[in-house]
Batch of 2 targets.
Target 1
Amino acid sequence: MSDAIALKHVDFRPAKEFAIRDLNMTVPTGAIYGFLGPNGSGKTTTIKLLLGMQEADEGLIEVLGHQIPQGAPQALARIGYVPEKVHLYSSLTVGEMMDHHRAFFATWNPTRAQELRRQFNLRSEQKIERLSKGEAGKLMMLLALATQPDLLVLDEPTDGLDPVVRRDVLAALVEYVSTRNATVLVSSHLVHEQERICDWVGVMDDGALVAELPMNTFRSGIKRLRVSGAPPVLPAAPFTLLGRTPTAGAEEEWGVRGWQPDMAAWLNAQGATLREVIDLDLEESFVELLSTARSGGTA
Amino acid sequence: MFRAVLYTQWKWTRPVILLAVLVAGYIPVNALRSMSYKSAGTYYIPSLYQSITSASVNYQLLALAVAVVVAISAWQADGQRQHVYALSLPVPRWQFVLLRFAAGAALLGVVAVAVGLFGGVAAAIAPLPAMLHAYPAGLAVRFWLGTLIPFALIFALLASNPRRVKLVVAGVATIVVVDMLLAMVGTTDKPLLVGWFLDGLYAGNGPLAAFLSKWMLIDV
C-alpha cells in the first residue's frame, strides 16, 4: 500500500519561539489518521506545509504522489480541506460560495453538494457572515466533500461545535469514507473523538512527532504498572519503559508500551514484583505519551 | 474560474463602481452646463477650455479614487483570512493573482466605458465650434490605462505577504525621513531622493506621468 502523505526530515521555523524539527510522518492510503497533539504543538503548521501553504526549510513532502510545494496545485485538486478557522468569503451567500468553489474543482459533484446542503440544513440564500459557527463548519465540510476528494485534510473540524452538529459532521465524514476509499487526516486535541473514527494515530508535541502507530496498538499497547522492589538501574527490557514514578514506600508506577503478560517474568528476574497492571484509556495513554516525550524519555 | 473571481470582486466593489459610473456621467454634463454660449449658438472658447480642463482633473481624481478602492477590495477578504481559502484552491498562486488582477481591470473597464459613453453622448448633444472635436473613445482608453497604474501598484503591494508589505512601507518611510532630515540640515532646498523618485514617477515616461497631462474630452 502506497502512502497518501509522506514527510521526511522536514524542518521549518515559522517563528523564533517555535519550530518543526526533523518531522517524519506517513499516512497510508485509505487510512483515517488521527493527528493528535495539544494546542500549539504544530499540527496546523504541519497541515499548512503539506498543503503547500508554507514552504519547509528542509526535507521532503509528498502528497498523493506530488512533491510539495511544486506539485501543490495538482495535489490540491484531489484534496478536500477543512481549516481550523472559518476561511470563507463572509459577504457571499451559501449558494454563491458553492458556485465559487465549484469553478475551481473539476471533480465537483453538484447533486451531492445539494444533498449535503439539505442534510446540513443550510439554505442557499444564507449569508456566510450570519452563519453560526456550527453552520459555517458544516458548509466547510460540504465544500470539502462535494469535490469528491481522494484525501480529506480536516484541521480541528469539530472544535467548538455543539454535540448535534459534531455528530452530523462526523456522520457525513464516515459516510463519505465508507463509500470511497479516501484517506483522511483529521487533526484534533479531542482524543475520544479520534478513538471512534481513526485507524492510525500520530501524536505531535512541541514541533515533533512523538509517536505514530495503528490505533489498536495505541489503544491497547500503553499500560501503567505498579511495581515494587525494582533496582534503580535496569537492563534492556522486552517492553518500552516510558517513565517511572516513585509512589508510597518502595513502590513505583511505570508507564510502558508493548506490554505482554508473560513479561512479568522479566520483572521477577530483576528482583522486582509486579503488583498490578492498569489499563489506560486513550486519553490517559495520550497524556502518558506526552509526559514521557516532554521528560526526554522514549515514546 | 475568471467568472467566479470576477463575481466576488463585483460583489465587493459594486457600490463604488456604480457610484463611479454616476460620477462619470455627471462630469461631462456638469462641464458642458457650466460653459457659456456665444450668440451664434456655439460655446465661448475660453469658457469651454476652462470647463474641459476642470473636467480633466475630475476624471483623474475619479480614476485615482476608483483604482485605489478596487485594488484594496480585491485583497481585503483574502487578507482578513490570511489568504487560507485562496491558497487551498488548486491553482498556482501566480494564476490566482492574475485572475484577481484581471477581474479588477475588467471592473475598472466598466467605469472607463461609462466615461466614454457619457462623454460621447454629452459631446453629441453640445453644439461644439467647428474647430473642436470630441474624443470620448480616446478619453475612455486613457482613463482605463490611467486607473490601471495606481491599481497595479496598490494591488501588487497588497498581494504580498503582510511581513513583506511592512518591510516595504518601513523601508520607504525610513528613506523619506532620512532624506527630509538631510535636506533640512544640508544645502539642498528639497529632499533629494524623494524629489528624484517623484520626478521618476511623474516626469517624461514615468508611470504616473499621465496624471499630469490633461484628459480632454474635447480638443482641437
Target 2
Amino acid sequence: MSTLIIGLSLGMLLFLLASGLTLIFGMLGVINFAHGALYMLGAYIAFDIGRHTGSFVAGLIGATVLVALAGALIERLALRPLYDRPHFYQLILTFGVILVISEVVKVVWGLGYQESTMPPALAGTVDMFGSTIPVYRLFVIGFGALVSGGLFLLIEKSTFGMLVRAASSDGEMVRLLGLPVASVRMAVFALGSGLAGLAGAIAAPLFPIELGMATNTIIDCFIVVILGGLGNIRGAVAASLLIGLVRAIGYSYMPSWVDILTFSLLIATLLTRPQGLFFRATRSA
Amino acid sequence: MNASRFDLWLGLPLAAIALLLPFTGPSDFMLNLATLVMIWAVFAIGFDFVFGLLGMVSFGHASFLGLGGYALALATQMWGLPFCAGVSLAIVAGALCAWLFSFFALRVSGIFFALVTLALSQLLYILADSKLRAWTGGADGLPGVARPGLGGIDFFDSTLFYWYVLAVFALVMAAVVVLRRSPFGRVIAGIRQNETRAEQLGFDVHRYKQITFIVSGGISGLAGALLASLLMYVNPQMLHWTTSGDVIIMTLLGGAGTLWGPVIGVLAFEVLKEWLSGWTQYWYGILGLIFILATLFFPKGIVGELQERYGQWRDKAARRDGRIS
C-alpha cells in the first residue's frame, strides 16, 4: 500500500513537471531542455524562502512566480527570435540556458547539497489500510490532482485555453485574425516554467536539492512526455502515473533494473508509436 | 564562392601554428591543451558529419566517444593487446554502436531523431554505470589507460604524444576532405538540401544516411580512444548526454557543415574556457551565455560567417574586374 502511495506521489510530481514541458511543446513546438533546470531553480528558491520566512506556502508561491518570470524572460529574449529557424536551434539554445541557470544557482547557493525541511503541519504520518504513510506524500497527491484539474479547466474551458489551442493548431491563422499570438506564446512558456518551479518547490522537502537535478530530471520528463505523446496533456497524466508506479514498485523489488526497463519502454514507444501511447487522432493541446 | 580556396587560406596558418608550436618551448600545460583541442576537434569533425553534412541533430555521440575510450582501455588492460589494435578496436566499437543506433534512430526524423539518440545513449550510460560495472569500473572509471608504443618511443612525453595526435588529426582531416569531395559527399550534401529530390533521383537515402552515421561513429570512437589515452583514464561521464551537448555547442560555435568549423569551434571553446576560468570560477555559465548570443546572432558560426564574408568579397572583386557582369 505504501508503495502505491509513493508511486502515486512520484507520478503526480512528474506530472506537474511534464505538463509544463508538454504544454510548451504543443504550443511552441519547442523541446525545452532547460525545463529540468527551471525545476531545480524552483527547488532552490522555495528552500531559500522557506528558510528565511519559515513559511512553506510562501515558498510554493514564490518559486512558482519567480520561475514563471524567468521563463517569460527566456522566451522573450532567447526563443522568440528563433521561431523562424529550424527547430534544432531552439533545442540547442535551451541547452545553453541550462548552463546559465546552473551557474546562477552555483553563484547564489554554492555547490553543496541543501536539505529542505518539511512543513510541520505535513510532517507526520497517518495509518491507512494497515500501513504507515507520510502525510506529505498524501499532500503531494492531493495537490497534484488539484493543479492538474485546474490546468484542464484552464486549457479546455477558459477563453485563454481556447486561444492556446487555436494558436497551437494554426498560429499564423490566429495571428491574422488579430489575436496576440506572441503574448500567448510567452504566457504559455511562463505557465509551463511556473509549473516546473512549483514542482521544484514541492519536491524540495522530499529529495536533496542539488545541481544534478537539472540534467537528471529532464530525462525523466522526456520519458513521460514521449510516452504520453508530445503536446498531449491527458497522455502526460496517464504516463506520469504509470512511470511513478513503475518506479515505486521497481525500486522495492528490482532496483537496478528500473532505469533500464523505463528506457527500453521509451525507445520501444518512440519506434512503434511516436505519437505516444495515449494518442487520439483528434486531440491537440 | 570558392570554398576550397577559403578552406586552404584558413588551414595554412592553422597548420603552421600546429607544426611550429612544439619548437616555441611551450609548457606541458600548453602542449596538453593543444593535444586536447585536436582530439576534441576529431570528435567534432566526426559529429559534424551527421550534424553539418546531413543536417540531423544527434544527442547520442557521447556513446561513440565513450565506447571508443572503453574499447582502448579494455583492449590494452584486460586483453593485453597492443595500442594500435586497441585504437582500431575503438574505431570499430564506435562504428558498430552507430550502426546499432541507426536501426532505431533513422526510422524517425527531426526532433524525434534527437530524442531517440538521446534515449539510446542514456541507456548505454546507465548500463555502463550499473550493470556493466565489471567491465567499466562503474562510476570510478578505469585508470591507467595506455599511451601508444611505437618503436620504443616514449609517448608519455607530452611533446611526442602531441606529434602522435597531430599526425592522427592530419590523417582525419585529409580523409574528411577526400570524403566531402567524393561522389559520396556530394550525395550527402544533396540529401541535406532536399531529401525527396535525392530519393527521386534514385539514391538510397536511408543507406547513405546509415553509412554517414557509421563513419561519424567510427571517427568519434577514434577520438574517444585518443582522449582516454591523453587523460590515461575513462569514466562514464564520457557517455553522459551532456557530453553530446558540449560537442553540439562547439560545432555550432565554429560553424556546422564547414570544413574547419568544428576545429575552430573546439579551439574557441577550449581557449575561452582556459581564459575565463583564469579569472572566474563560473566560466561554464559565461560560456553558456556566449553560446546563446552566438546562436541568436551568428547562427552560421565563426567559420560560416567568415566564409560568407569571403564569398561576398570575392564576388565584389570579380564584379569590379569585370569578370562577372
